[in-house]
Amino acid sequence: MAFKHITSRDNPVFKQLRKLADQSRERKKTASTLLEGVHLIEAYHQVYGEPRLLIIPEGHSNDEATALIQQLTDVDTMLLPTLMFAELAPVASSSGVMALVDIPAATLPAHCDFALVIEDIQDPGNLGSILRTAAAAGVQAAYLTKGCTDAWSPKALRGGQGAQFILPLMESVDALEVIAGFSGKTLALTMQGASLYQQGLQEPVLFVVGNEGAGISAALQAAVETCVTIPMAHQGTLALESLNAAAATAIALFECQRQRGLGT
Amino acid sequence: MAFKHITSRDNPVFKQLRKLADQSRERKKTASTLLEGVHLIEAYHQVYGEPRLLIIPEGHSNDEATALIQQLTDVDTMLLPTLMFAELAPVASSSGVMALVDIPAATLPAHCDFALVIEDIQDPGNLGSILRTAAAAGVQAAYLTKGCTDAWSPKALRGGQGAQFILPLMESVDALEVIAGFSGKTLALTMQGASLYQQGLQEPVLFVVGNEGAGISAALQAAVETCVTIPMAHQGTLALESLNAAAATAIALFECQRQRGLGT
Predict the structure, then answer these.
(1) Among A141, A198, B218, B254, which is least packed, fewest CB within 10 Å?
(2) ipTM of the predicted structure?
(3) pLDDT average per 10 residues of sequence, chain A (264 residues)
(4) With an 8 Å Cβ cutoff, are A230 and B263 in contact?
């Protein structure tokens, strides 16, 4: 491996890493992104193998990070001054190691009986959280509309905790096409509709979830077979009760898995 | 109403508002907090009546904020320069109005058949999200351990979207005492345990949820009747699949409501 100590912000590799940290366009153009923290890098390594580059801050690596670096001795490593390292990290309290990796190409399953369409979720933490829940529920394909934030941004990766590595993920899809092409039940999670619990979810099913502020677009609501809702305890009493998009998605996806006999 | 235009950071009322924005101790001492945004202020007004003070930025109120201000003409109003207003707001993109309000005293129900103990959730957004889900599920009492972040901080209020106003909430509780005093089933949501779906949840039930990093403390795991888990699709295949605390709580609380016949 090569080991480099970079101290200048004008270093071309550092400038390229900054672009990757900040710009979705650059990530898409180069099909690469940055992972922050031992957990994410280990998860990536487990699924796809070695990262292209490890990035560590001067004097601040903890035991976990050190163990990871020792395990990946074949990987090129870049040592940065603390402040320069912090400019790449998605959150202030960093775990002492980052990695440059290739964004894997998604392989969609030939036959899919559990799919998720995500419409226009703009907050990276929210999107990450939804992807994490979808991976845990065993969703086989996640389709993201153009209006969604970049699923491979450092913040979305942090929220997903590795979900992006195991959940086949298609970005910038035409959701109408995906819905029309799905062989099975198509359901949109809305604020008003038939009770989720009255749906038979053992056959192949595709859920559409959307931005909680705007709701699911009229076009997608019209395209699905059924609009469903999660009944709330005090619906109507006060205007306060509602679920955020990530919580609603968790309830719907795991209701599906419950009906299919997971854990019984 | 009194209308004041404050432009000095040395103004004692402004200094007091800054303390409330930043310090949990000050909020507890004075039993008051700041609400940000039309939605939260309207929700508070609906449940508890008028706020003590409205705070608006120079020249930046939008139509919604203006309508709210016109509706609350009896409330004292403070106009602040944009930068001073921003110092009080929990997020950068503010919705143009804040309010100073009393923190309501919690009234616990005489008989509780749906309770939630929250152990050591430190992220305010996460805590807010869990409280929001609990309110939507119809939880009748939420008990927070000392290790939880302040449920009345501006960020937790933002995450809760008004849940704090309708969900009876006790902070800094002795969770062991709460569990021992509960008449019904007590369950801890853990990573390993009996399947959630095999539990009968129609009788009175208390759930314990904890910090996903540390898990639920051994003391609380020992104190409850049963440790339960939400079965994941690929458990064991890879170490990646897991749920965040807010998603796990949503699934458990709504499984309880499903068994009780909500929405069927």
Answers:
(1) B218
(2) 0.90
(3) 90 96 96 94 93 90 83 92 90 81 91 96 94 94 97 94 93 97 96 93 97 86 96 62 88 96 74
(4) yes
